[in-house]
Amino acid sequence: MIQHLRSFLLIFTLLFAWNLSSGQIKNDTIHTVYVVKTIDEYQQQVVLNPNMELVNLIDVINGLKLDIRYATTNNFTKQQIYTSPLAFLRKPAALALEQVQDSLRKLNLGLIIFDAYRPYSATVKFYEIIKDTRFVADPKVGSKHNRGCAVDVALYDLKTGEIVPMPTEFDDFSEKAGAYYPNLPKIVLYNRSLLSGIMQAFGFTIYPDEWWHFDYQNWKEYPLMDIPFNELKMKNEK
To answer: What's the total number of domains in the chain?
Structure first.
């Protein structure tokens, strides 16, 4: 009996290895990361640690502009990924971003948000479309966006409401999107440096391949999330 069991396990292991190597089982679809998937689990975490709260940014930051591209077809996927054009961040990150906005206001500038918290399921979809991990996160590890600790931003002029000159459009995959790409007009270099400097002054770090992407400090303290926007909005309104 034991010998038969050993034979069965050996055959199963060999078949699994063959399927994996032949592409019948795709390794990049096997995810073992911990992801919070229910509003109840999320709420329990907030009770234990109020910093876990995902704050609706438009509710707490005056003068903030939203241009949530993934709630439209105007993004690299050419698909509407989000059901609602909303932006959430963990409470400490939201408060830090409020300080950024207050500081920019003195320069007659404000923040425009392209993306903030991103449900994990959206990260999986992005990776299915483009597997370049310079620009999309590998679902095996998830994104800092999934943790509510990353934000994609640009600057806009408070008087005109227009975005100031920046290196590229949002979600540009060229080398010009790099946070340190040098061959740009002086005004663009100035605006990029201003954005990067003020974000870093309040606890954010810039992602080297994307001038618009900033991660909040201590992001490792927050779990990956896959809670839909409408559930978070309803919970915040109660």
So the answer is: 2
